[in-house]
Amino acid sequence: MKPEFLNIPAGLASRRDAPRWSVRCESDRLTDVLLCAPAHLSPVPCCSVTRESLDRGFETDTHKALAQHRDLRAALERHAVRCHMLDPLPGLPDLCFTRDSAVVTPWGPVLLNPALGHRRREVDHVARYLSELDAGPVRRIERGTVEGGDVCVARDGLAIIGWSGERTSLAGAETLAALFRTHGWDVLLCPFDAYHLHLDTIFCMVDARTALACIDALPQEFLRALEARGIHILPVLPAESRQLGCNILSLDGQTVLVAKGETRLEALLWRSGFETVPVDISEFAACGGGLHCVTMPLARA
To answer: Where along the chain do its domains lie?
Structure first.
């Protein structure tokens, strides 16, 4: 039987000896990211956002989606981020949402276990690509389901894992949490309503002590746990989170990619000392994903 757990030395991945493919903090400087062009993007009616889009008659404009993705890549490269491109595959309409198939930990990549059958095929494709990068995964989650949009490597020593029971199960969250806890990390588990699809649609770290969050959608116990750990919340309105406004990408703890048109959030971030780079993601947002969803950090320094 294939082992779910691969041996990771307990002392591995200090700042000095971390593997090349390593993430210890969601807001450390992003050096490498995994992207996939949305050549086959289409709204899959498996979440509330895409169902609402379909009810409005939305159809993906592939040319527009590809142009938006090129602009995203250009924005990343202007900030010295190396973009590694995963080949799109027919029959995998969500493959451009690279965040969900794997998460890179301080000990290397961990392959996840999405809830939907077509998304589990994405994991095999990502696994092959990671092997080509000499970034072979250190582990594959097989107990419970867990998707990358629910995983936040918040800062060195603290991981946050959301679970709705629909995309990430409690069993999957606990399985991934065990890896971090084995290495002495503090792990917060956050239950939330499956209406919001993934945790990163209602909660994203901006720097090591600041997060954007839709507090109306998060449990008070979780918010108190964040406060106890010194994490300050910049509040996101429910309507903004539905437009994937909360779904941002921190490039270095100072510069933040945000959805174009989220002027209130841009102003909020600016007043809080952050620089913003607006990127049009309308085609992706209509399919349930934003900037955090379409980027899977491979390495942060």
So the answer is: 30-300
